[in-house]
Amino acid sequence: MKISVIGVGYLGAVHAASMAELGHDVIGLDVDARRIDLLSAGEAPFHEPGFTEILRRGLDAGRLRFTTDYAELADAEVHFLSLGTPQRADGFGADLTALHAAAGSLAEVLPARAGRPTLVVGKSTVPAGTARGLADRLERLEGVRVMWNPEFLREGFAVKDTLDPDRLVYGVRDPDGADTEIAMLDEVYAGILERDVERLVMGFETAELVKVSANAFLATKISFINAIAELCEATGADVTDISRALGMDDRIGSKFLRAGVGFGGGCLPKDIRAFIASAEDLGAGQALGFLREVDAVNQRRRVRVVELAREMLGPVRGRRITVLGAAFKPDSDDVRDSPALEVASRLTSAGAHVTVTDPEALANAARRFEGMTTVADTTEALRGAELVLLLTEWREYRELDPVATAQLVAAPRIVDGRGVLSPRDWREAGWEFRALGRPDAPAADTASAPELALS
Ligand code: UDX
């Protein structure tokens, strides 16, 4: 099929290359000419395992190309809208400017199809009601049908999640009268559906809510365990043991129960805020009041790491602190709303000499925070540190040897902000070891509490 993908950011670029991988003839469009040049040259604008391979395969096979010109989209049968919907500058709501602008530009070239069936499929994460609004506008053009098909991909697994998803959600105006558009999208995804992937058809608003509910649930799960971590800090309990024990209950499940410095990235933080804003707009704000607390717990974890630094060093002004990790999660170069970078920037503002290191994300980190000291080599970054903060759990940081690392630093002090290091190993190697939601002292010390007086 002839397919266009409008907006080739993270989601759109992966989607375009994946559709070419499925055998379609794909054209990706973006208003960012630099991005289009990079993609056309087979260069990935971001770090994503497996993406460069499918990008180049599509380009080499002549099934994938990129443009900035809407006129080149005129003969596509299916158009995917994968524009970013960032948080608005003036509040919690989603900024739909790019999505509406793209729909407007697309509407100008759609009449070239002369009434032949044409499908416009929204993939962006949007507040409920957006799809219906766009459909009301675009379906006035003869032959045009609109669907909403949310995307659940995770960075780091984006190619796999696109080509081998857990489920496909089709949002339509009328679930009982959408055979034409469902058949068209089935044809697009034939290579996926033949592997028995579940495909769920539902109304527009339901499909929109599935996506935001999924992200809200994941964020809630993380903030839940991080709230328990706060309790652990107040009681001397260990949140990693609680996570493990909770996760063994099938009804709870072990995923997304890793306590630490919390969630970041381009999706979860802004999506829960947009969800709150949209519920309030709909007069149902009370239903999602708890998400404000989910957000607040998440923010508090970042502040807690800064407090721990102060507890360990005293005033941080002039002290040398090394932050391990800049990306919002490992295996990504994305630094949007990165907890690690927020901690680094708070400590820098407090006068500390902060060095940030990361295997992939330093260029993006330096762009976002000018003047931040970045050092690519882990050993160099650790040399002379008076405090080390592990805030993104890249494998190479998880596997650091406490004995060898102690030789590099000026003073062996570490905060494990992701709950991935062995407190015992690090303490045995002479480190002052603190972690979020874990006891401050070795278990043996906490056990030597004064004996209870027996009456
Ligand atoms: C998320 C959703 O998972 C995905 O379905 C949606 O399409 C986009 O948003 P992503 O942003 O790639 O994907 O990251 P994800 O793997 O979900 O992690 C989000 C954040 O939560 C990261 O900062 C991660 O470090 C943190 N996290 C995750 C935890 O703090 N604890 C956990 O147990 C899991």
Task: Please tell me about this protein's structure.
- It is a single chain.
- This protein has 455 residues and is of the alpha/beta class.
- The protein has 2 domains: 2-197, NAD(P)-binding Rossmann-like Domain (Rossmann fold, 3-Layer(aba) Sandwich); 213-452, Rossmann fold (3-Layer(aba) Sandwich).
- It has 19 helices and 14 strands.
- It has helices at residues 10-21, 33-40, 51-60, 97-109, 130-138, 158-163, 179-188, 190-193, 204-235, 239-247, 268-281, 289-313, 339-349, 362-368, 378-382, 395-398, 402-408, 423-428, 443-447; strands at 2-6, 25-29, 64-67, 78-81, 118-122, 144-148, 167-172, 198-203, 320-324, 353-357, 373-374, 387-390, 413-416, 432-435.
- Helix 14 (362-368) links the parallel strand 10 and strand 11 (373-374).
- Helix 1 crosses helix 3, helix 9 crosses helix 11 (268-281) and helix 9 (204-235) packs parallel to helix 12.
- Residues 445-455 have low confidence and may be disordered.
- The chain binds uridine-5'-diphosphate-xylopyranose (UDX).
